[in-house]
Amino acid sequence: MKKKKSSKKSPIERFMALSDAEKEAEVAPFEKGNFGLGLPGRALNPSERKKWQRIKRGLGRPKIGQGAAIVPVSIERGLLQQVDAYARANHLKRSQMVAEGLRLVMRTRKAG
Hints:
mainly alpha; 5 helices; elongated
């Protein structure tokens, strides 16, 4: 049994069906910085800026443990190719392999 194709047009199809003048009228508020909210665009005041900074801080990757630090390390190119191939085959990230390797070395070589 075939599904009936919906006669309802998508927003893109509706926009493309408009005349050039109608398209211009639809786009005009966005070009002025008015994003359909009825408010003109403006800079944030200090209170709003502080709130935005708090919100923005929560974006991005979740923090694991104490967070991450970028540590530039030199690795011989052949070894790095082997590491990358192993990581791909085992669905790991390079940084995960390095972290696991460091933990393994610390476990096997007890400080004495």
